[in-house]
Amino acid sequence: MNSVSERSCWGVARWTVIAFLALVALVYLFGGFQAVQVAAG
Question: Computed from CA positions of residues 34, 39, 24, 10, in that sequence, does the dihedral angle turn out positive or negative?
């Protein structure tokens, strides 16, 4: 039972990383990084 919970936990972590990378990729494609740098500067 312990191995099943660990597997599901890693599955959630993997999907979280994939979602984060996808979001970063979308922001990069739409040129959002320049807008963020201008707002922060």
Answer: positive
